[in-house]
Amino acid sequence: MKSVSIQGIRGSFHHEAVNRFFHDQKMEIIDSPTFKTVVMDVINGKANYGMMAIENSIAGAILPNYSLITKYGLHIIGEVVLPIKHHLLALPGETLDSINEVRTHPMALLQCENFLEKYPSWKLLSKDDTATCAYHIHIKKMKGVATIGSKLAAQMYQLHILAENIHDVSDNYTRFYLLSATPEKIENFTKASLYFTTDHTMGSLAKVLNILAKYKMNITKIQSVPLTGSIFQYSFHADINTPGGDDTNYRMALNEIKNTTGFLHILGEYKEDKIKK
Ligand SMILES: O=C(O)C(=O)C[C@]1(C(=O)O)C=C[C@@H](O)C=C1
Predict the structure, then answer these.
(1) Which of 2, 43, 129, 195 has the fewest C-beta atoms lying within 10 Å of its C-beta?
(2) Atom 16 (ligand 1): residue with closest C-alpha?
(3) Are residues 114 and 246 in the same domain?
(4) What per-residue confidence (pLDDT) applies to 277?
């Protein structure tokens, strides 16, 4: 059976992302405490793949993860766009009145600010991941303590849902990359992740963007990341839609971009995950 390392433990949104990507295919889930250890699991062959959150539609990009991917030369072989539905979970018998502390992942706290503002007396604690909090509440029988997490976590750790769908914005999505230590050829890929630098001359980034426009490549995301070893110089990550099937235009665009960039790496060519509402 193939394995996927996730940041956090089973029942987390990373676990949900694995389920969405692999559907009915049985995968072994490897719990890993940090994004760095997920990368190490993949590099050292402990896991075939790593699932890594890269951005949230409300909170934005997880910048250090871009650097982890490039520093360790990982390949992006898939994408998951997961609707994030947050629920308030606690031991059976608890009520909104009996709760005095909420512990969960900082992203979850950020995404549920409006709900939490209604309960100013609650102590809010940032922890490693939503599912680990659910597990601890269950195993240590933590009275008066709630977490914010998924329905999967509620089921797995026998917690009750005290309040459903407490995220501020109903359209709340997190995008994840599926990572591998070796490249995998994905037939008819519809998306590519490019990583490049431009020099500090006027219009150098615009040149790259114009080439992509000329070949009708839609940019779905562009992210600048500080270039290690330099002061205020940046590398760029661009995710683009590719036509799928005939990749002639895409290849021609890459050839032209190479001439205008310091370096150009293709981090992955994979299938786009379309948002399903
Ligand atoms: O704590 C979890 O359950 C996670 O999977 C982590 C994480 C994140 O890294 O942003 C994933 C998706 C949600 O946006 C909240 C938390």
Answers:
(1) 2
(2) 107
(3) no
(4) 62
Q: What separation in Å is there between the alpha carbon of 78 and the centre of ligand 1? A: 18
Query: Are 128 and 77 part of one and the same domain?
Result: no
Write out the two tokens for 227. 């270039």
What pLDDT digit, counting tens, does each position of 17-50 carry? 999 999 989 999 999 999 999 999 999 999 999 9
For ligand 1, the distance from its centroid to the CA atom of residue 174, given in whole angstroms, is 8
Which domain does 10 fall in, by range?
Answer: 3-83+172-180
**Which helix H or strand E contains 248, and what residues bound it?**
helix 248-258
The whole-number pLDDT of residue 119 equals: 98
Query: Ligand 1 pocket: which residues have CB below 6 Å?
Result: 8, 12-14, 53, 56, 84, 105, 107-108, 129-131, 174
pLDDT confidence band for 244 (50 / 70 / 90): confident
Residue 272 inside a domain? The answer is: no
Tell whether the model's pLDDT for residue 229 goes beyond 90. no
Ligand 1 centroid to Cα of residue 150, in Å, is 10
- For residues 113 and 231, membership in a common domain is answered with no
For the chain, what is the radius of gyration of the CA atoms? Answer: 21
Question: What average pLDDT is seen over the chain?
Answer: 95
For residues 235 and 224, the answer to whether their CB atoms sit within 8 Å is yes
Report how far ligand 1's centroid is from the alpha carbon of 128 (Å): 9
**Shared-domain flag, residues 67 and 104:** no
Same domain, yes or no, for 54 and 176?
A: yes
